[in-house]
């Protein structure tokens, strides 16, 4: 059995006339295995809003997340980070020598 997906960061496109980011965050947070959702607006265009969505949980079912977002009229543009395993491991910044 694969290790549980604990955190995923998505680049998402949401229609301007679609649901609010509050509604999107609540709908996604209600899915099984999800403990929290953070949505930040990155850019607003004429017809779409570009969002960064961070999702954390004990066992995230990415397929369910993608399906819920599609039901809300959103499109996943890219998966920018995925963390799996027994705990969330944060990425460390490493300075390069000059």
Q: Mind explaining what this structure looks like?
A:
By secondary structure, the protein is of the alpha+beta class. It has one domain (5-84): MTH889-like domain (Alpha-Beta Plaits, 2-Layer Sandwich), CATH 3.30.70. The protein has helices at residues 21-29, 62-71; strands at residues 5-15, 34-44, 48-57, 75-84. The protein has a 4-stranded antiparallel sheet with strand order 2-3-1-4, with helices on one face. The model has no long low-confidence stretch (mean pLDDT 94). InterPro entries: DUF211 (IPR003831), MTH889-like_dom_sf (IPR023129). This is DUF211 domain-containing protein. Pfam families: DUF211.
Keywords:
4 strands, flat, 43% strand, 19% helix, 98 residues, MTH889-like_dom_sf, Alpha-Beta Plaits, single chain, 4-stranded antiparallel β-sheet, alpha+beta, DUF211 domain-containing protein, DUF211
């Amino acid at each position: 059995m694969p290790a549980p997906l604990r955190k995923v960061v998505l680049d998402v496109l949401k229609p301007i006339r679609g649901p609010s980011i509050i509604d999107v965050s609540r709908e996604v947070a209600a899915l099984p295995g999800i403990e929290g959702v953070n949505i930040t607006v990155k850019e607003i265009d004429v017809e779409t809003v570009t969002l960064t969505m961070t999702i954390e949980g004990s066992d995230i079912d990415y397929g369910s997340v993608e399906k819920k977002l599609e039901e809300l009229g959103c499109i996943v543009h890219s998966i920018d980070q995925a963390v799996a395993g027994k705990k969330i491991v944060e990425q460390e910044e490493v300075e390069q020598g000059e």
